[in-house]
Amino acid sequence: MKEIKKITCIGAGYVGGPTMSVIAQKNPDVEVTVVDLNHARIAAWNDEDLDNLPVYEPGLDAVVGEARGRNLFFSTDVDKAISEADMIFISVNTPTKTYGKGKGQAADLKFIELCARQIAAVAKNDKIVVEKSTLPVRTAEALKNILENTGNGVNFHILSNPEFLAEGTAVTDLHNPDRVLIGGEDAEAIEALVNVYAAWVPRERILTTNLWSSELSKLVANAFLAQRVSSINAISELCEVTGANVDEVARAIGQDSRIGGKFLKASVGFGGSCFQKDILNLVYIARTYNLHEVADYWEQVIIMNDHQKTRFAEKIIQTMYNTVNGKHIAFLGWAFKKDTNDTRESAAIYVADHLLDEEAQVVVYDPKVSAEQIYKDLDYLGTRSPEDNRRLVKVVDNAYEALDGAHAAAILTEWDEFKGYDWAKVKEGMKKPSFVFDGRKLLDRNELNRLGFAYYAIGE
Ligand code: NAD
Ligand code: UGA
Question: Where's the UDP-glucose/GDP-mannose dehydrogenase C-terminal domain (predicted)?
Answer without folding.
Answer: 330-445
